[in-house]
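Notebook B, p. 112. Complex prediction, attempt 2.
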Amino acid sequence: MTGEVLALEDARLAFGSLQALDGISFALRPGEMLGLLGPDGAGKTTALRALLGLVPLDSGRAALLGEDPRAAGAAHRTAVGYLSQRFTLYGDLTVDENLAFFARLFRVRDFRPARERLLELTRLGPFRRLRADRLSGGMQKKLALACTLVHAPRVLLLDEPTTGVDPVTRREFWLLLSGLLAQGLSVLLTTPYLDEAERCGRVALMRAGRVLACDSPAALRGTFRHRLREVVCAPARVARDLLGREPRVAEVQLFGDRLHVVTRDPADGLEDLLARLPGVAVSAVRDVAPTLEDVFIRRIGEEASA
Amino acid sequence: MSAGGSAAVVASGLTRRFGALVAVDRVSLSVARGEIYGFLGPNGAGKSTTIRMLCGLLAPSAGSARVAGVDVARAPDEVKRRIGYMSQRFSLYGDLGVEENLELHGALHGLAGPRFRARRDWAVATSRLGDRLSARVDDLAGGFRQRLALVCALLHEPEVVFLDEPTSGVDPLMRRAFFALVDALAAAGVTVFLTTHFLDEAEYCHRIGLVAGGRLVAEGTPTALKTRLEGRVLLDVRTDAPGAALVALARVPEVAEATAFGAGVHALAAAGVGAEAARAAVAAALARDGVAASAAEQVEPSLEDVFLEIVRREARP
């Protein structure tokens, strides 16, 4: 294996008139966590399915552990753990039984030590004799993850692993994932959540079957060549409408009690403008660091106007 | 607007017990007309039980609540007529068309004749679904479905609308468009009560109430809540070995919590520990375990950091 665990290269795939993958390229490096970030319909799940060899590409290349996933044998498949969005747990089996079932499915000999380790890692030990359908949603997700790990894969593909999970459980899930990374696993995951993508080592911004940009969250934020000012003011709606008409302002977004104002010129602090907004009382102005959401929205805006 | 002053939702000492379990414990809050109020908490915090009481679906064990001027315990059916409810998952019929969903929701709320036609026209214009009226709801993209669910919940012109995680799983552009619509409604005087555990949604609220263990544990504007961690130091530790760093930092008393973040770890300093002291303690712990770190910069806490910190504090009695 060279410098990539898996890769798509100029991959294209159409479902009828829908171009699900439109020349997408990215590669997962050994030991990293790469996040595919994009809206519904961006092609995230299709990309994972192509990498697993579940759908054939129309053109381009897919590689999983150095091989064509469509041709790869069972030995390679056992090196991969895949958590789909609609994961399959057996609701009428217990936590223990689910893990045993998946271990047998992957022909793991003597799975008991692995099971004990996974129960400890996921803190599901106290619930091991509970039926899976009696667990909370967050615990079910953790059990599903444990089931994808029972055969000790080297690569994990996780399709929106934390959608619908509350923040307390989400953070536990991230602690778990970082422990796996520390053990040398390579992780490819998809997420629609921008705050979650910030937790990945590298992020591929996806839209309409293509990768717009792929880099570390910090480097992606560095591509934001505007200034972002947070303005706390009242009435905020009036300020939004006034600033929205200003040529020096690229974009205004209202967030409850405050505005995020993107200036065209990074040197422009808009001080004079903000001091003279008729009928608006400005109580605080400061620079804020752009989030991946800001980067993403600017990218899409630039694509649309290009 | 009915009686009840400017507050559209008022709860005082609202409590619900299920046997020995106190699901909602003396919640008091007040939401002004035209306000977007976010009710935020982890699963099992009592959010849904509170909403069910406010919607007149479940009687309180103690305390009281008035919604759109109506007492929820005395006149639950009247409450149901005055409110709208939207959940992305449950409020639409997927195998029916857009038009059919509007007709069904109209009929459920007793709208007929010219009033229904006027509201239907409003709904179509507001949701911008005019060119998709015969499309099956299941075939619509998430953003369209949300807008349809929202206008269906508003067909009967409720004074208060409850939104349950309305934009979970959609992209930020669609979320922005959705909240622009919600803001226009609020500007027109509709009161919006949003429940979520999704912090990206909470940022759009005028005010947020945090619930944990059945109690309202903090309340304020998103800006004010973020200052709740003011003085607390959050360090962004860059390292190639986040797993080892997490292990090393778990034993440091100056660090209240360490979590994986990007190509490194976020370490929240314990209360009263300054940036320099925190940085020194982190560096010493990492050096002791032989973990190489390139930087430990102070970063601003997110609403999620604040939320988790408050939930954690409340969990410790």
